[in-house]
Write a structure and sequence with these properties.
280 residues; alpha+beta; 6-stranded antiparallel beta sheet; two-stranded antiparallel ribbon; 5 helices; 20% strand
Length: 280
């Protein structure tokens, strides 16, 4: 049964190459529409599915320079009047134990849109003051994960800030667009290096005016809110998860990957044992 191409693109995994990077013709298979390349790469050998260029689906373009973006203002350089509602920011990263030659693959961004807190456009045109702040964490994985997370930490906040009207004009739309554009930038900047490397990501947009948090994540980086429970006898802190981990073996994500022709399984250790979590 032919799959709706738009639905396929929305659900497609990048495990075997960018599904949107190329199409193939179905040869003599009448009625079979062209869909993403990862179907071609994964199933052509098993099903004798016609293809013009076997193996092409795993090819990655050579890296290309990225278009410059206006950088955000780092927390350290932010003027006191723009730190409304946030009094302290601390960043920490712990080295992995017993890992010789370990490279820190964590990256972060604590910043605000450039300017004085104004949104894009003029007040006469309906633009409102945007006092948002961004707090992001990226955890790279794979041989080149540190490069992936570094690109994400630089590009994603800039895309949030560049949203028309400012990110607070439509935070959900801003977060989705920023993640998608950052994903494209990672492939453009790193090319073949991302075949087995990537990064998780979690972003929190703080709206001081409404005392509201807007949160988005990919992978299993997690945002947690600490709540002080005002118990007169025993006040205590309570951890409230703001995100749901996006793991390869969760039912919805496993279905998405497998529909794209991917596989979900742990890496294999030296003795043939499962090593680490399931990966897609």
């Amino acid at each position: 049964m032919p799959m709706n191409e738009q639905k396929f693109r929305q659900r497609a995994s990048v495990t075997f190459g960018r599904p949107s990077s190329r199409k193939f013709k179905s040869g003599s298979g009448a009625g079979i529409g062209s869909i993403g390349a990862c179907f071609d790469g994964c199933f052509s050998a098993l099903m004798a599915f016609p293809t013009e260029n076997p193996g092409a689906s795993v090819a990655y373009p050579e890296p290309k320079p990225l278009e410059p973006l206006t950088p955000c203002i780092s927390w350290e350089a932010l003027e006191p009047e723009r730190r409304v509602g946030v009094t302290h920011v601390e960043v920490g990263s712990t080295a992995k134990e017993c890992s010789l030659g370990w490279v820190n693959q964590d990256a972060k961004a604590a910043c605000a849109p450039p300017g004085k807190g104004e949104a894009g456009g003029s007040p006469a045109g309906g633009a409102k003051r945007d006092s948002s702040m961004f707090f992001c964490v990226f955890d790279g994985h794979g041989k080149n994960g540190h490069e992936v997370s570094a690109v994400a930490a630089e590009r994603l906040p800039a895309y949030l800030a560049a949203q028309p009207g400012g990110p607070l004009a439509g935070p959900t739309r801003a977060i989705e667009a920023a993640f998608r554009k950052t994903d494209e930038d990672i492939y453009q900047a790193l090319g073949p290096k991302v075949e087995y490397s990537g990064s998780t990501g979690v972003v929190v947009i703080v709206d001081p005016g409404k005392r509201m948090l807007h949160v988005g994540n990919v992978g299993d980086s997690r945002a947690v809110l600490g709540q002080l429970l005002p118990d007169a006898k025993a006040p205590r802190w309570h951890a409230l998860a703001l995100t749901t981990d996006n793991k390869a073996d969760s039912p919805d994500e496993r279905e998405r990957i497998e529909l794209s022709g991917g596989t979900v399984m742990p890496m294999e250790g030296c003795e043939g044992e499962d090593a680490g979590p399931a990966r897609g």
